[in-house]
Fold this protein.
Amino acid sequence: MTVSNSIQPINVLDYTKKLLNGTFAETDKQFLDSMAEKDRLDNIKLSIQLIKYDKNQSAKSLLKVLSNIHQLYGEWVRDLCLLNMHKKDNIVVPAMIKPIILRMEKMSKDIDPHCEPYIRLALNSSNNDLDRAISLMNVFSSAVSSYLVDKKRLLDDELYKFAQLEQGRIDNGLIIRR
């Protein structure tokens, strides 16, 4: 089993700050796009491994935790890329921005119900959907980064359990060498 983890929340937080401050450069966009692509490829590999290790409960538990982390991280990176594209190109398509706002609002509340006042503040900060979305990205990034830190602890626990179970199988001779 291979665990490929391209998640880099510190970098995404940096790029979120650049978006908020209006200092997001073309090289930043390219780097973030490459991060999003790597995450997409890791998700494909992860999906294949979930199918492959379906009968191995310890591997499946570990892969499910990693999959949940990747899903949220991927949303964060994609939304950041989309908001930057809209801001840079000065094209605001409400039909594209509103779903991002709704998704970030819902996910932020689900992750941390205590951030609701900050969500309201962000949503009331402007009449422009793009500005509201960018303001909300600040709250969303904070919630997601905290969530990822907590989930990393869970992932570490699952990885430890998996390693213990596999070591037990090796010690008991249950794994056949090829």
Q: What stands out?
A: Helices lie at 9-21, 26-52, 57-89, 94-111, 116-123, 129-171.
